[in-house]
Amino acid sequence: MIAKVALPVPKVAPFDYEVPEGMRLGVGHRVRVRLGKRSLFGIVVALREEPEHPGPLQPILEDMGLVVPYWELPLLEELSRRYFVSLGMTLERSLPRRARPRPRRLVLGVPLPEARRALEGLAERAPAQAKVLERALVGPVE
Known about the structure:
Helix content is 31%, strand content 23%. By secondary structure, it is an alpha+beta fold.
């Protein structure tokens, strides 16, 4: 079986992925897949028996369960067409904030006290870089 997965990338059309044997998947399920070297979360928007294009397909890595009821898909598809945004990006934005993947944590390459000292002299020389470093030192905002 083939799943058409909408990913939060600028490409408008969903991507085809192979559903592994034994995985019970439905429209509206959130899945983790590979796209190139990245691992992304997407939403299954259709299931098919045969792929549209010949060749091997990447398997779905993980099923996270139902997150978008099937009756909401037509509305979200219309919104993506109307506002010229990919369906995957529209679906991601329609999810509650807690259901979206969390951004990666920022790891500084220097100890915190050293970064704070660097910030003191950086504001005059490079104000934009100082703002970025200052934001990184504050930490994540929930």
